[in-house]
Amino acid sequence: ARDMAIVSLLACTGLRRSEAAALDWSQVDAQPDGSGRLTVTRSKTDQEGEGAVVAITSVAMRDLERWAELQGRDRQGSVFGLSGRQVSRRVAAVAKAAGLGEGFSGHSGRVGMAVTMLRNQAPSATIMRQGRWNSERMIGRYGRNETAGEALRYL
User: Fold this and answer.
1) Domains of the chain, with CATH numbers?
2) Cα–Cα distance between 130 and 56 in angstroms, integer?
3) Which of 47, 74, 76, 120 is 20 to 30 A from 140, alpha carbon to alpha carbon?
4) What pTM value is reported for the model?
5) 33-57 tens-digit pLDDT
6) pLDDT tens column, 82-107
């Protein structure tokens, strides 16, 4: 349950592994529609701790709720109780067990979130806000295979 919660949360929020490791239950806010909001208080690009709020899908919220229930304690303190390195190892193990092969890490959710949003034709500004990027450069890097494939519509 913990691993599913990690993978689904990383895939929809674009959290870095260090952000997932530092995640506290107080940063997770359930919404009436079943989705959630996550306040990222500190990150690689936000050392001052201004914070940013990103969306959590209803699927990821269900996975988080299941993990919380299995923990059997009030939703206080660390969500996962893992280091950044351990988060990365769990992602790699889940991908391997799912038959996706090698090469997955704690950063894979960040890339996957950008690619999924590109496939769903989300506006760049929306992708940038969810990924907490200040420019389109990272979207271009992560989505280069997707954007190259757009040419096929015109060939």
Assistant:
1) 2-154 (1.10.443.10)
2) 10
3) 47
4) 0.87
5) 999 999 998 666 656 667 899 999 9
6) 999 999 999 999 999 999 999 999 99
